[in-house]
Amino acid sequence: MSQLASQIVSGDRAALARAITLIESTRDDHQREAQALLTELLPKTGHSVRIGITGAPGVGKSTFIEAFGLYVIEQSHKVAVLAIDPSSSKTGGSILGDKTRMAKLSQHDHAYIRPSPTGGSLGGVARRTREGMLLAEAAGYDVVIVETVGVGQSETEVADMVDMFLLMLLPGSGDELQGIKKGIVELADLIVVNKADGDLKAQAKRVRTDYSAALRMLHPPLTSPPQAGGKEGGNWQPKAVTCSALLGEGIADIWQSVQEFTKAVKDSGELPRRRAHQSVAWMWKEIRETLLTRFEQHPKVAAQIGAMEKAVASGTLAPTEAAMELIGLAGKV
Length: 333
Ligand code: GDP
What we know:
Layout (H helix, E strand, L loop, with lengths): L1 H8 L3 H12 L3 H14 L7 E7 L5 H14 L4 E6 L1 H6 L11 H5 L3 E5 L6 H17 L4 E7 L4 H6 L4 E6 L14 H4 L2 E4 L7 H18 L20 E4 L8 H17 L2 H28 L1 H15 L5 H12 L3
Parallel strand pairs: 1-4, 1-5, 2-3, 2-4, 5-6, 6-7
Helix pairs in contact: 1-2, 2-3, 2-7, 4-11, 13-14
Bound molecules: guanosine-5'-diphosphate.
């Protein structure tokens, strides 16, 4: 593992790919190796800007990430893109992966693009993405983009692992705008109305104005100190902008916004607070998931759980009592 770690730190892309594969493996021995690797690399992580990008299929995410990534590389950065494909875990089908995406960016020496593997629970995919992000940081990528389709559960998971959350919208209005779930706008640090070109330009500007107003209502200027881990604070006021990923317009301004955001959350101390909160929340999530899995797999529990569920469903056993009995059966989980 030490050798692999030093290869990753030296920027060896094949080593990074191998390490991500190790993290994605569900084998116990691989998981142990992966965790040892992560522990060794931890001091080398944390030095990137972590950007989450979400938006409905077709909004222009891959076109944007390609243009944005190439621009950021021009500014002497290295860009890693990790894509979460929520459809893949359920149906085996893919929203993200069917077409060639980001062809130019993927060939660039200073870019690393990795789609999330298909299969597994969303929690598993999110964990691997988060760990992939840490590995990419250790490999020297100082801008890490986590992409997800804004139609599933994964966008809140992504918001919880990045510094800055960017929501892409189409220049439509009302319902047609939103393949996006409720609550996502609240999570956004930056809203990008894409396709602000040609006939859609004027409409894109109107949509931006509408969302600017919505964001001001959602995030009134600060009057009290920020809460740990909260969205508020950090002297950053979420805002809406337009861009044309196709024409490359607005890309430089968005990178400027990312830098302003980063400066604001660093200067105010919000960034380390947010990341610390995310790490602790991640630990608890791991604990909850692991305990629950062990509980469900406990032989005595597994033998009884069906009958208990039936009894609860039919009203012959109170839910709390059933829960207590099952927990009692498991003893020490
Ligand atoms: P994704 O599904 O969100 O990754 O969307 P894509 O990047 O694949 O883009 C979907 C379609 O929208 C493609 O045909 C793109 O060429 C087009 N598109 C993307 N960005 C723009 C833009 O800024 N302006 C216009 N007019 N079309 C765009």
